[in-house]
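[stage:ingest] chain + small molecule (hypoxanthine)
[stage:ingest] validated
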Amino acid sequence: MTKLKEQLQETTAFLKEKGIGDVDFGLILGSGLGELADEIEEPIAVPFSEVPHFSVSTVVGHAGQLVYGTLSGKKVLAMQGRFHYYEGHSMQVVTYPVRMMAALGIHSIVVTNAAGGVNKAFEPGNLMLITDHINFTGDNPLIGENEDEMGPRFPDMSQAYTKDYQEIARKIAAEQGISLKEGVYMGFSGPTYETPAEIHMARTIGADAVGMSTVAEVIVAAHSGLKVLGISCITNLAAGMQSSLNHEEVVETTQRVKEQFKQLIKSTLEEL
Ligand code: HPA
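[stage:predict] done
[stage:export] tokens:
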């Protein structure tokens, strides 16, 4: 057995002992967006630090725990916080939670993040349906020997973000009067915010939003054959479009729009 498979067996055995077994949806909750996990019914919470082969998340605004239970009538396992490449974790560590979720038998993930708005029509506080991504991190979690049992050597990324899920999210947003933008998320390694020149490039090559997460997780989701719904919270205008950037503003904006964000995810989840 490969080392990854062995680790996953240990992790899933531990979670099953905690009562976390039957899961349909994985939720990955970004900076300031973790509160959605507080609405999970009959929750079982496990700090990342207790989960075998998990790393710890160090970012302000991330609680760093798994929360399992029922949300919108679905069995979900939420990551309140995530691992980032810029923390010094390898891409394999960043994406281990998605491997774990796949090993537990989920069929879909909902990925969320805070992102900078690149599209000139966006405003801080907008929610954006992710229709596609550009991996600009300079790395890829699938580099190395392929685990053929887990997925193909050359995964197709043509529909990494599931079209049907996008349709449902659009419909829910329209029904509930939530203005839902949509576009391409471009993932940078961070931890620096981008330069204005990099944002100019990002817009030129087709990005609508930029951030420091998500792309690696979605690559592993595609490799694992999982369906994906992605939602960004546009927390700020990207570099060069406003005077300066800081993490406090990112967290403040997520706090401002969290009710709408939670409502959109919960109502969409009901119909997935
Ligand atoms: N750039 C990168 N990551 C981000 C940003 C940004 O402007 N805002 C929130 N996360």
